[in-house]
Amino acid sequence: MKDQIKALADKYFDEIVSHRKYLHANPELSFKEFETSKYIQNFLKTNNIEFQKGYVKTGIVAHIKGKNPHKKTIALRADIDALPINEKNNVDYKSQNEGVMHACGHDVHTSSMLGVCKILNALKDKFEGTVKIVFQPGEEIVPGGASLMLEEGALQNPDAELIIGQHVYPQMETGNVGFKKGMYMASADELHVTVKGAGGHGALPEKCVDPIVITSNIIVALQSIVSRSATPTIPSVLTFGHIEGLGATNIIPDEVKLKGTFRTFDEEWRAEAKAKMKKMAEAIAEGMGGSCDFDIHHGFPYLVNDDNTTQIAWSSAEEYLGEDKVHALDLRMTSEDFAFYSQEMPSCFYRLGVANTNKGITSGLHTNTFDIDHESLRTSIGLMSYIALNMLKS
Asked: Do both 195 and 286 map to the same domain?
């Protein structure tokens, strides 16, 4: 079966590259992936693959049924949305949608999954069970398309027993992949804070309530929650990446706005820390004569890879690529809405190397020069197909 999959990956490679280039040139933002959804649907129709559309408006679930389709059902997931970034690459498949770019590789995930569809569909007389192919919208923003797909029953009828996902990894050379069992990626919540005071002349601060000074105290104090209240064995990160106080050199503004993120790996501590932050910020503002609106946008949970499911995928990768091409990954403070699936069923989320240092393809995720070595698509479509068939047999 491995040799057959490799032959099919080679056969379909050029077509999948063309799909990736089209998707990269035509990115759409989260929950607005209408043309992308139509493109996927047309592909599935052309290849006579059964599917249901309309999940969370643009989501699609395809079914590839082998012999004895009720024996076991597994799911594979690809996200389809892009980011609000203006692309700077000088390539013939550069984004045609100004200010929108597939800078996180979801075009790769989607085109790879189209390749997996073709391979599994060609082999459906050679395996038992059903593979649900999930094309998911809205990974990039809260509340995350994964949570909404679950709410709308995308992994039911038939119920998937497990789910597999992959993500591009520009820190790893093409032809390599990486896995981690257990805890892998952090939860992520958004903090939106408005500190209110009373503005006035910068030379007369005694007649004002300075929200910039209040905000400064809040930022410093909140870091103590992470450094002094968190259990040392639970990694946590609190970062404020946006501060807006529209005063001037001699003007104290009426209010300051903060935006930040809190990330960790424990749900009990996650809830406790957010409550502490809100209470502390409000108390500091009140104590300094102002007020504080502390709004928490509850985001993605932590992502955990099931040990047994990940071991099967890991071993499959070693068989398919060779042990030297498969690497152990470290814990990451980044987040992924695939975590919602991992909280519901056995899951494995692994990394696909897409870099080519010799060709200068090394830009990181969420940058305006991100791109991939297209040879990575040959690896991705074959490996995920091989993993899927081994999952059905296990």
From this structure: yes
Chain mean pLDDT for the chain:
97
Residue 180: what residue type? K
The residue among 255, 274, 300 that closes a domain is: 300
Question: What b/e readout covers 98-119, taking b as 16+ CB neighbours within 10 angstroms?
Answer: eebbbbbbbbbbbbbbbbbbbb
Burial of 298 (0-12, 13-18, 19+ CB in 10 A): middle
pLDDT tens per residue across span 283-311: 999 999 999 999 999 999 999 999 999 99
The CATH number of whichever domain residue 198 belongs to comes to: 3.30.70.360
Bridge partners (DSSP) of residue 339 are: none
Same domain, 67 and 134: yes
Element (H, E) at 107: helix 106-122
pLDDT, residue 62, reads: 98
Same domain assignment for residues 309 and 275 = no
Whole-angstrom distance, CA of residue 119 vs CA of residue 6: 9
Structural domain span for residue 132:
2-185+302-393
Q: Are residues 18 and 97 in the same domain?
A: yes
Domain-ending residue, one of 253, 279, 300: 300
Residue 385 amino acid letter: S
Structural domain total, the chain: 2
DSSP letters for 152-219: TTTTTTTTPS-EEEEEEEEEEETT-EEE--EEEE--EEEEEEEEE-B-EETT-GGGSB-HHHHHHHHH
- CB contact at 8 A, 78 and 134: yes
pTM: 0.94
Provide the pLDDT for residue 180. 98
Find, among 26, 30, 29, 32, the residue nearest to 97 by Cα. 26
Asked if residue 185 lies in contact with residue 232, where contact means CB atoms within 8 angstroms, the answer is no
Reported as a single tens digit per residue, the pLDDT across 11-22 is 999 999 999 999
Separation between Cα atoms, residue 58 and residue 8, nearest integer Å: 29
Q: What's the mean pLDDT in 188-208?
A: 98
* 278 and 316 housed in the same domain: no
Q: How confident is the model at residue 394 (pLDDT cuts 50, 70, 90)?
A: confident
| Sequence-ordered list of residues with C-beta below 8 angstroms from that of 55, at least 6 positions apart, any chain | 61, 148, 149, 152, 154
